[in-house]
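Pipeline run #58 for the internal structure catalog. This entry was flagged by the ingest filter as a single-chain record with no existing model, so it goes straight to prediction. Upstream metadata was stripped on purpose; only the residue string is passed forward. Reviewer on rotation: M.T. Logging verbosity set to normal.
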Amino acid sequence: MPHGLLKEFKSNLSGIVAMALGRLEAYAIAYATRKVNEIIDELRDKCPPPPVLNQLSKTVNNIRKIMNKVDSRIDKFAQIPKKLDKPIKGGKAAVQILSHLPVPSALGTPPGPAGGLIIAVKTGKIQTLSSLLVWTRKMVEVLEDDQKAIKALIADSNTIFNPIKQRLDIIDKLLQRCAENPDLSADDRDKILEGLNVPRKGNIEPTSYTGQNGRVYNIEVIQDVNAPAIAPRRIAIAKDFRGIVVLRGEPSFASDPQVLIDELKLRIDNQLP
């Protein structure tokens, strides 16, 4: 069977990395955002007693640990482009060799009594070398595209937690101030929190969201009828164009409905086809 039937070189390496990073970051961001807003709600009205401050401080540390673990995983993915250097260089060297390889189809002398064909290379061999050259060029091209795409993904991932880290720094400052002065005034607390841009408690209107699959969903936050009487509990739901609920978020006591909406958006992009 002729080697000209070499299949075109294909790779989904960058797609696999994008999916892995997306799932990893989606979980971490959803968890961190929810916890950060819960802490802000706790601190906004008053400085809580020392045991609560201590627990909030532990929660902040846990958020940082989760982000550090994700950063560690991102660092491992960041090694992939470097590992692609060798096959790319090897492929380019092979392309140079194959491109300049002298393969005459026939060798002989001018026609005459002593002339004629001395040696001939089979057409199939020439086609094999040609196919191998095309395949190798494609391999280099695809691997270089993967390398560039993964580098771009890593660059985005390296800064994805910056907004959350900035919020945690502000929360740490407020926790410290509350520990030093349990009677810290509302104005002083608001001045510290003003850089967080977190909405006040309250309901939010239904919103439309276009998922990565190109479909439009209507997201609503509804009351959980099965919630205990101690506090209102809400659920974010996503409806398709028919008004059918296609995804539900986890019930939550979070007082800011936007947290539930943001979490559901992440789940739409990662769970719905």
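catalog note: The first helix runs from residue 13 to 44.
catalog note: The radius of gyration is 30 Å.
status: ready for reviewer M.T.
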